[in-house]
Write a structure and sequence with these properties.
Strand content of chain B: 5-15%
Strand content of chain A: 15-25%
Strand order of the largest sheet of chain A: 1-2-5-4-3
CATH architecture of the domain at 72-303 and 330-352 in chain B: Orthogonal Bundle
Shape of chain A: globular
Distance between the termini of chain B: 38 Å
Largest sheet of chain B: 3 strands, antiparallel
Order of helices and strands of chain A: HEEHEEEEHE
Helix content of chain B: 40-55%
Number of strands of chain A: 7
CATH topology of the domain at 72-303 and 330-352 in chain B: Cytochrome-c3 Hydrogenase, chain B
Number of domains of chain A: 1
Number of helices of chain B: 16
Radius of gyration of chain B: 22 Å
CATH superfamily of the domain at 72-303 and 330-352 in chain B: Cytochrome-c3 Hydrogenase, chain B
Order of helices and strands of chain B: EEEHHHHHEEHHHHHHHHEEEHHH
Structural class of chain B: mainly alpha
Largest sheet of chain A: 5 strands, mixed
Number of helices of chain A: 3
Oligomer: heterodimer
Radius of gyration of chain A: 18 Å
Chain lengths: ~170, ~400
């Protein structure tokens, strides 16, 4: 399917989808979706026989500080069988940064959503185990936000019990 | 439940015997077999793994945050340090992404040079992975042979870029310098040595009973699971999915080169090993063809918006000096927009998602590290296997700390 045909099919199949200007995306297929009904839309993208986006290549977020809504969660979807890619962008407001989790749709979303939570503080509702992944549990703030200063220092954390069980109590996510 | 050597019964786990005590141990973060620092929090029933929690992040250096601080060209040295077993491939991957965003195409000679450098790096990446993985299984001589072969290739990389590891070779719109004059002769000698070593290692390992017992039927995933986990590269091809970015969406000049995409059938560790062995031969074929086809010509685009002027102009003309100053201080003004560009890295699909706001600095640089997703799937690969199976599985996933923890 050509990118133009793919854009048209996406607009027909996903009623809430807004196409992103093609020139700003350098010809790549990008759609904007709302957080409401996102799970269903992502399932359509994965399962529809004309789309078959069976792989989540990557999931990340971008912080557009000063813009409303402030964040965007970005899904890079990839169909190995049909050899095309679709990028899905979901705007997320600053005061309620919650997106439904895609971990039940693509397993790759499990770690990728943990990273987006860790780096941007975006929560993924329904994620089985939303913990920090790259930073340590006591870390304060979310380092890839634009208002996190590069030279910001973190408080010292108390020494951990070296033999204590790593499984027991998991830090609850805020 | 544990299967015998060579058997390919899936080992996905059923609940542990309720009368047995489940033991919790932590493996790592400093373990001789975990190249890079990583921690496995294990729950064991006897020696059988009930559950694994993989902890990463020990090598997190804030790659993405640091990229936002400098200009676009400042990212190349950071990109080297992502996958330090194949730095040139990261360099090329990032250069391709920025060039798509900037709308420039490097000259043909530059594209061939990138292919040659990248494929040399792919062989060093696979040699590092397989050498280390076999040494962890006791095949220390095979490891030393492979490291010897890697040295021949590192010599080539050094002749090409001036450095063995921290190459910083690509630039926006080209490469730093041309091939050395005797590159073809040097490469012939080096590849002959590498082929000799690989034939030795193939004889030592591929049909070795001990090696087979440790590798076959361990850590396998089905193709559907592998796709769902976001695996790519040798891990996905070992499951029988012939997906290679170089074939599916040819970039640079890969569409003019003849190579095959080796695949496995069961997706276990032995298949991953064999896929990587076969890929090295294909990469060497690519290098030979590219060296035979490479045309003469410039190695950088001639575009003063993105490329530093030659030093003679900087020192002898005011325009050259101003251009140089603007590019160094303000950076290249890459037009606003966003791209996601995937290229075939050593471990799989290396993607860069870039957002530019039109200023001289990247607004957002996101790397899609292939081994991050590989490590995500390790829990599923290991559940139901034995404690000792962690070592070959982890070795074949080829987690590179710099890339996984970015």
């Amino acid at each position: 399917m050509t990118p133009d045909a793919l854009r048209q099919r996406l607009a027909a199949l996903l009623p809430g989808a807004k196409p992103f200007p093609a020139d700003a995306a350098r010809g790549e297929v990008v759609i904007l979706l709302g957080a409401d009904g996102l799970e269903e839309a992502l399932r359509t993208l994965r399962d529809h026989p004309e789309l078959r986006l069976e792989q989540l290549s990557d999931l990340t977020a971008v912080d557009y500080l000063g813009r409303t809504p402030r964040f965007e969660v970005v899904y890079q979807l990839h169909s190995i069988s049909l050899n095309h890619r679709v990028r899905v962008k979901v705007p997320v407001p600053e005061d309620q940064p919650v997106v439904p989790s895609a971990a039940g749709i693509w397993k790759a979303a499990n770690w990728a959503e943990r990273e987006a939570w860790d780096m941007f503080g975006i929560r993924f509702a329904g994620h089985p185990d939303l913990r920090r992944i790259l930073m340590y549990p006591e870390f304060q703030g979310h380092p890839l936000r634009k208002d996190y200063q590069v030279l910001h220092r973190q408080p010292l954390v108390p020494e951990r019990d070296p033999i204590g069980s790593p499984w027991a109590p998991r830090t609850p996510t805020r | 439940m544990a299967t015998g050597p060579g058997s390919l019964t899936p080992r996905r786990f059923v609940a542990p015997d309720p009368t047995d005590e489940v033991m919790e141990i932590q493996m790592g973060p400093s373990h001789p077999a975990s190249h890079g620092t990583i921690k496995f929090n294990l729950r064991l029933d006897g020696e059988t793994i009930v559950d694994v929690d993989v902890e990463i992040g020990y090598l997190h250096r804030g790659f993405e945050k640091m990229c936002e601080q400098g200009t676009w060209n400042h990212v190349f040295p950071y990109a080297d340090r992502l996958n330090y077993a194949s730095p040139l491939l990261n360099n090329v991957g990032f250069a391709l992404a920025v060039e798509k965003l900037a709308g420039i195409t490097p000259p043909e000679r530059c594209q061939y040079i990138r292919v040659i450098g990248g494929e040399i790096s792919r062989v060093t990446d696979h040699l590092t992975c397989l050498g280390m993985a076999s040494s962890e299984l006791g095949a220390i001589s095979a490891a030393f042979y492979m490291l010897e072969a890697r040295e021949f290739l590192y010599d080539l990389v050094e002749a090409l870029t001036g450095a063995r590891l921290t190459v910083t070779y690509c630039r926006l719109g080209g490469v730093m310098k041309d091939l050395p004059a005797d590159m073809k002769a040097r490469t012939e000698v080096a590849l002959r040595q590498v082929r000799r070593v690989l034939a030795d290692c193939d004889r030592l390992l591929s049909r070795n009973r001990i090696f087979l017992d440790r590798m076959t039927g361990i850590g396998g995933l089905s193709a559907e699971e592998a796709i769902s986990w976001g695996l790519s590269g040798p891990l996905l091809r070992a499951c029988g999915v012939a997906y290679d970015v170089r074939k599916a969406n040819p970039y640079l000049v890969y569409d003019r080169l003849d190579f095959e995409v080796p695949t496995g059938t069961t997706g276990d560790n032995y298949d991953r090993f064999m896929v990587r062995m076969a890929e090295m031969e294909q990469s060497m074929r690519i290098i030979e063809q590219a060296l035979a086809q490479i045309p003469d010509g410039p190695i950088m685009v001639n575009d003063p918006r993105f490329v530093l002027p030659p030093k003679s102009e900087v020192y002898n003309s005011i325009e050259g000096l101003m251009n140089h100053f603007k590019l160094v201080i303000e950076g290249q003004k890459v037009p606003a927009g966003e791209v996601y560009v995937a290229s075939e890295g050593g471990n799989g699909e290396l993607g860069f998602y870039l957002v530019s706001d039109g200023s001289g600095r990247p607004y957002r640089v996101r790397v899609r590290p292939p081994s991050f997703y590989g490590m995500g799937a390790v829990g599923d690969m290991l559940r139901g296997c034995m404690l000792a199976d962690i070592i070959p599985t982890f070795g074949q996933v080829n987690m590179i700390g710099g890339e996984c923890d970015h």
